[in-house]
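User: Okay, second chain of the day. Same drill as before: sequence in, structure tokens out.
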Amino acid sequence: MTDTIPADFWRGVEQFNHGQFYDCHDTLEAIWMEAVAPDKAFLQGVLQVAVALYHLGNLNWKGAVILLGEGISRLVPYQPEYFGIDVEQLIDQSDRLLTTLQQSGPDQVGAIAAQINPDAMDGLPETIASDPASLPVKRPIITVLV
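Assistant: Same drill. Structure tokens below.
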């Protein structure tokens, strides 16, 4: 990890946590383009999770599933924390959402997307009312540790 975390990274985290996934992508992509290893792959993982959530908001099941999977895979080596954030928690929340999407299939993408409130900052799980056996669904939140 570089000695200094770019200031715009924190703006990207804030955008992510407020459900502004397109803006988060733009902010973090600018940092990612200038980054070098090992930070570059970490930033790409966060970007992929953000874009997956953007796809989910647009009811693009396939895009959400693919990018959640790729983002999670890129973030795994950075556990438990990196760049001052709780990577382990971000992976866990993203993986739960990915599992829910995969188990529910494309036909339920609207119901799942409706459960994720981009204005909610508490990150509490919500269940899909039509399927009580489903996993809790919550929007991943980036938890700052520093």
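Residues 7-115 form a domain with the Hyaluronidase domain-like fold (CATH 1.10.3450.10).

User: Thanks, on to the next one.
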